[in-house]
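Submission checklist for the structure archive. All mandatory fields must be present; incomplete records are returned to the submitter.

[x] Identifier: Amidohydrolase
[x] Organism: Hyalangium rubrum
[x] Residue count: 437
[x] Sequence attached
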Amino acid sequence: MRLHLLLALLLAAPALAQSALSREVERHAASVEAKVVGWRRDLHAHPELSNQETRTAQVVAEHLRRLGLEVRTGVGGTGVVGVLRGARPGPVVALRADMDALPVTEEVDLPFKSTVRTQYNGQEVGVMHACGHDTHVAMLMGAAEVLASMRATLPGTVKFIFQPAEEASGTGPGGALAMLRDGVLENPAPSAIFGLHVFSGYRTGEVDYRPGGVMASSDGLSIVVRGSQTHGAMPWAGVDPIVVASQIVLGLQTVVSRQVDLTASPAIVTIGSITGGVRGNIIPDTVTMSGTIRTFDQGMRQQIHERVRRVAEGIAQSAGATAEVKISLGNGVTQNDPALVERMRPTVRRVAGKGMVTGQSTTTSEDFSAFQARIPGVFLFLGVTPEGKDLKQAAPNHSPRFFVDERALPVGVRLLSNLAVDYLEGTKGQEPTAKPR
Ligand SMILES: [Zn+2]
Ligand SMILES: [Zn+2]
């Protein structure tokens, strides 16, 4: 009888160990809740623009050192990396938060409202955490404290990545690429990465969790159409680039609607600016256009790039003009690894409960995609709009009225901590599966 009981206990041991760890997470997470709100308010009152996150980095680094982590600063600019080595052997997992604010003047009436002003592109602007990265930093600081308290039972290593300049990735290289260049995924090399973003489109504490492309790739498009200048009254004496550019704008509308499989995944080709000519009776030499291309699938991204070139160059050629097409690669697709999503689903369901939702893809982009291009990764969205507020009226991210219900923060801390712990526990004894790809 006793033997049977012992056997049953031994067989149940892995399950018991896992729930013991998650109980430990819950206990520690409860004890950091107030601190996380405090950090968030401090960061909110002291926002810093992309690549200028020096105070934020200092706050983070001091916190991680106090917790006894190995800390590296100046990674990819102002980035900070903390490494927590658990006492038990196991794999390495990474958690990422972005740190930068935006040139937006805050209009939310809060006691810790930002009053910071600075110069940006030659203009005086306010600075605000209008994308909620203050909450990302505070929640990851909280998760670091939770997990550091569990060092003795932690089966593996957690790498905390505090990334600068995510917002810069919309217009040039962002902080993720800079950190990757500085070896953020080496020594030790994580086999998976998790990140989350607060989002006003969901209720406080709701978690949008799904596989595949959750945020778009974002590539810049520039087209220079060269004709031959002539009198507006004698178009036959030259080549009119304005007519050619107009045909190209219309031709590009057929790339998504006629030339790729619309049922597989949505995509967008937009021309947002068109410039050419100085006077009504002069046909100019050149017309310049710029635009953006968004996709949710890496293969379709390549197809669209090829077809945009083909359409623009072909139309120009048919008129005796030329089109020089330049596509500048921006953020890739934020593509959640399907196997990792499936594997961690029970963890997210446990933490989010009924709040686990399957949302829609968003056509904005994220440089978290740069990490996902190297190792399997999952990006989650956390709702921050309280009950009683109309979700459709809630100010979106980047608005001067963007508002975060702080009751969502404990959910974020528990998500990050539990994802790390369950990933380590579940991967124990397995070979790391990460391959460069
Ligand atoms: Zn943003
Ligand atoms: Zn953001």
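[x] Structure attached
Curator remark: Residues 131, 133, 166, 197 surround zinc ion (ligand 2) (CB under 6 Å). The first helix runs from residue 2 to 45.
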